[in-house]
Each structure stands twice: as structure tokens, then as C-alpha cells.
Design a protein that fits this description.
The structure holds 2 protein chains of 2 kinds. By secondary structure, chain A is of the alpha+beta class. Chain A has 2 domains: about 60 residues; about 120 residues, Alpha-Beta Plaits. Chain A contains 6 helices and 8 strands; from the N terminus they run αααβαββββββααβ. A 5-stranded antiparallel sheet of chain A has the order 3-2-7-1-8. Chain A is flat, with a radius of gyration of 28 Å. By secondary structure, chain B is α+β, with helices and mostly antiparallel strands. Chain B is built from 6 helices and 9 strands. In chain B, helix 2 runs antiparallel to helix 3 and helix 4 packs across helix 5. The radius of gyration of chain B is 30 Å and the shape is flat. Classes of the chains: A alpha+beta, B alpha+beta. Chains A and B meet through helix 1, helix 2, helix 3, strand 1 and helix 4 of A and helix 1, helix 2, helix 3, strand 1 and helix 4 of B. Strand 1 of chain A pairs antiparallel with strand 9 of chain B, so a sheet runs across the interface.
């Protein structure tokens, strides 16, 4: 039998079709078998459930604290006030008040030729210095992207995210909420030769907004020490 | 003859179009789907939540015990409140703490008058970085030259001295940290890490592990003016 021209064409098309079919089959099989798709679903469910449980427990803890504080109320005002103030310092109480919101973001200036792009990216040090400046200006409670910072909170850049309170990963943009005197806080950042001016050299975007009512959540980490303990009475 | 040709080509194009559409959709799913490291991210988040949950459980049972005690009677109530106060004082940094940890000593070494020694003195940023590194390695309590670092403590150049807690400290600087001594030490001494860099700048840094050290209490008055406890939404 002599094959006609168009028959050759059909054979070619059929060949290509067969190849595509096989590939299609394999790739769709691969997708369904990769761990992410299946595992992520279960993980997300588990996380949501755990988060719900945690929030419930957190609520219970808060209520218990309040109950105990009420008992303190029955005794003396100074005890109650001390408890309240120390809880705020320790971070175990959510607070509200006036203050500033500082947002930090990577540089938006065009990179000068031959310059190290690393210089124009927000570093952990920059965030540290802004926080330090706010503390120096009398900030009473500080949160970074809604995570309360306490005496032992570190700031660490891991790729484009910041790691704080050991395991909390925060994505950009970074928003620092600080409660204190809004004027003082703002002025301390904008001071001549101050942090904002220095960060501007690298084009890091800093915005400071004064706010009348800010909320800073409570610290959710451990409330017990593993290594430290009260010294023996001398 | 031409008719068969057209029919078969139509058929083949139809099937091909369908396949392409299908292929496109699966490919789209892969793109918008889950990169592998996301699974890792979610796993860390879950772990974090589980840790927080465990911590809250400890806290809740502790509080429950105190509340139960407080309900027994007046003397028990005052004891329970006092216990809580002691605990919160410890968390806030108002008490001395004892435990294993490290002592970090910083002093400038390379002082050549003709070069100007400004670059080679220990700056506030250096201390800030050391403290941050120690926090990241799990320090539970920190102090510099006798000044306890609490959540509102600043480390800041004021004039030619460094102020911590609005108190002037002067070189040489000694940073104390309670925590796992090995972890704290290795966090600082890691190759290409903080201590390496600072030594390159001509700062003499020594890190000493201590089986036991005492960190002083915060010795200033707490004065909160702006932060008010947030009322829990019922």
C-alpha cells in the first residue's frame, strides 16, 4: 500500500498526540502524589484547630489572672497596681494607648551601578535601632507586626522575613507599634542624625504615624524560666 | 479524498485543544500550589503553636491553683496574691536571678591616637548586637554593667557615654546572660559571627562560660503613663 501525503501527516500528528498524552498522564500523577498538596491541607487544618485551642486557653488564663487580681483588689490598691504595672512590663497583659506606628520597608531607589544591593535592604540592625530609639524615647509597650516584644525578644533576619520570640516568623512590610508619648516618640526618630535620617541614606522607607489609640497584644511565649531562678537568700 | 483529510484534521485539533486546556489547568495548579518549603513553614508554625499551648497549660494550672487557694479564705488569698506578685516580679525583671550562663567582656584594644580611636571603641550598636545575639540564643535574663535589661531598656549613646536605663555606664563593658551556657557561647562565637566581626574592628571580646552567675534586679522606678490594660472583650 502506498501511503498518501496526508496520511503521513496524520501519522505524525498521532505520534505527537500519543507523546503528549503520556506526558500529561505522568505530570498529573506527579502533582497528586507530591506531599505538599495533600499534606498542606492537613497541616492547615491542624494549625487552625491548634490556634483555636490556644486562643481558648489564653482566654481562660486571662480570666484566671483577672480573678486573682480581683482578690488582690480586696487587699490593697498598691498590690493591685503593682501587679498591673509589672504585667505590662513583663508583657503578659495586652495594652492600649497613644503612640506611633512605624512602618519599615526595603529601599525603593534605583540601585546605583556597581553598588552592593545588600546595602539597600532592611537589616535586623536597622529594626533593632528603631526599636532601641523608641525605648529610649519612653515607649512602654512595643509590638512588631502584632507580636509583643519583651526583654528577651530578638530580631533576626532570615531571608525576607524577621524571626522574633524564637520562632515567630514575620513577613515584610514591618510595622512597629509603640505605646508612649506620640510627640516624643516621633521626634526621637526624626532627630537630626537620628535613625530615620541614617536609614534614608540607603533609601530604606520609614514612615512614622502618630496614633491616638493603638493596641499592643500580650506576649504568648513561655512564662517560666528554664535556667534562671531566684538566688538563695543571703 | 480531501473530505477525509479535513475531518481527521478537525478531530485531531479538537483533541489537541482539549489536552492543551487540561495541561494548562494542571500547570496553573502547580504554580499557584504549594512550594515545598511552605510545608516546612507550616510545620514550624504548628510546632510553635503546640509550644505556646503547652506553656499556657502550665500557666493555667498555676493560676488555677492560686485562685483555688485564694477562695479558701482571707489569709490564703493574700498568700496566693503574694505568690503571683513574686512570679510577675521575676518575669518583669524586678528581682535578682541566678543561673548558668555567659559573661561577655568588651573593651577596645587598638588605640592609635594618630588614627583617631572613634572607629575602634565599643559603640552602643555593638552592645545592642551582642544583646540581640544572646537573646536569639535563648538568654532568659540580661544585664550590662549592673543594669538589668528589661522590655523598656534602651542601650544608647548619649554624648560620649552609653546610657542604659537612663544610667551612664562606661567601658570596659561586661554583659551577663543567664541561659544554656553552651548555646549562648556558640551563638556568639560562630565562625563569621558577631564576635569574629567585632574582633576585626579591634574590639577585644572575651566570652566566659559560668556555671552560676547572678543578674541584678532592675533598680529604677516603673512609671507607666500611656499604656493602659486592654479590657478583654467579653
Amino acid at each position: 500500500m502506498k501511503l498518501k501525503e496526508y496520511q503521513w501527516g496524520i501519522i505524525l500528528v498521532g505520534l505527537v498526540l500519543g507523546l503528549m498524552l503520556a506526558m500529561q498522564y505522568r505530570s498529573s500523577k506527579e502533582i497528586n502524589e507530591t506531599p505538599p498538596v495533600a499534606r498542606v491541607q492537613t497541616l492547615v487544618n491542624e494549625i487552625n484547630q491548634k490556634r483555636e485551642e490556644r486562643n481558648q486557653l489564653q482566654k481562660k488564663v486571662n480570666q484566671l489572672r483577672e480573678k486573682l487580681d480581683k482578690k488582690a483588689n480586696g487587699q490593697s490598691n498598691t498590690t493591685r497596681e503593682e501587679l498591673e504595672a509589672l504585667r505590662i512590663i513583663a508583657g503578659s497583659k495586652a495594652v492600649s494607648g497613644t503612640g506611633v506606628e512605624v512602618s519599615l520597608n526595603d529601599s525603593n531607589v534605583a540601585l546605583p551601578a556597581g553598588q552592593d544591593p545588600n546595602l539597600y535592604v532592611l537589616h535586623d540592625e536597622d529594626v533593632l535601632r528603631v526599636l532601641n530609639e523608641l525605648k529610649a524615647a519612653g515607649a512602654e509597650a512595643i509590638a512588631l507586626n502584632g507580636v509583643r516584644l519583651i526583654a528577651t525578644s530578638e530580631i533576626r533576619c532570615i531571608g525576607p522575613t524577621i524571626l522574633t520570640n524564637k520562632n515567630k516568623r514575620l513577613p515584610a512590610p514591618f510595622i512597629i507599634t509603640a505605646i508612649g508619648n506620640p510627640e516624643t516618640l516621633e521626634n526621637s526618630l526624626y532627630m537630626k542624625g537620628g535613625v530615620v535620617e541614617q536609614l534614608k541614606i540607603w533609601g530604606i522607607q520609614v514612615q512614622v504615624r502618630k496614633k491616638n489609640n493603638l493596641e499592643v497584644p500580650q506576649y504568648t511565649g513561655p512564662t517560666t524560666f528554664e535556667y534562671a531562678q531566684a538566688p538563695e537568700a543571703e | 479524498m480531501n473530505k477525509t483529510l479535513y475531518v481527521s484534521i478537525t478531530l485531531v485539533s479538537l483533541v489537541m485543544g482539549l489536552m492543551m486546556a487540561l495541561q494548562f489547568r494542571t500547570a496553573g495548579r502547580v504554580d499557584s500550589g504549594v512550594p515545598y518549603d511552605r510545608v516546612q513553614l507550616l510545620t514550624t508554625e504548628l510546632k510553635q503553636l503546640e509550644k505556646e499551648y503547652a506553656n499556657l497549660l502550665i500557666e493555667a494550672s498555676d493560676l488555677e491553683e492560686k485562685v483555688a487557694k485564694a477562695e479558701k479564705g482571707r489569709p490564703e488569698a493574700s498568700q496566693a496574691v503574694f505568690d503571683e506578685l513574686v512570679k510577675v516580679r521575676q518575669l518583669a525583671g524586678m528581682t535578682k536571678l541566678e543561673g548558668p550562663g555567659v559573661e561577655v567582656n568588651l573593651a577596645p584594644i587598638r588605640r592609635e591616637p594618630e588614627q583617631g580611636d572613634n572607629l575602634f571603641t565599643v559603640r552602643d550598636e555593638d552592645l545592642l548586637r551582642v544583646v540581640n545575639e544572646l537573646r536569639a540564643s535563648g538568654a532568659e535574663a540580661l544585664a550590662i554593667n549592673g543594669q538589668r535589661i528589661i522590655s523598656t531598656s534602651e542601650i544608647r549613646l548619649a554624648g560620649s557615654f552609653i546610657d542604659i536605663n537612663l544610667t551612664r555606664i562606661s567601658p570596659p563593658y561586661s554583659v551577663l546572660a543567664i541561659g544554656s551556657a553552651d548555646q549562648l557561647e556558640s551563638g556568639l562565637l560562630i565562625k563569621g559571627g558577631l564576635v569574629d566581626t567585632m574582633r576585626d574592628w579591634g574590639v577585644s571580646v572575651t566570652v566566659t562560660k559560668k556555671p552560676s552567675l547572678v543578674i541584678p534586679a532592675y533598680n529604677h522606678r516603673i512609671h507607666l503613663e500611656y499604656a493602659k490594660p486592654l479590657k478583654e472583650a467579653q
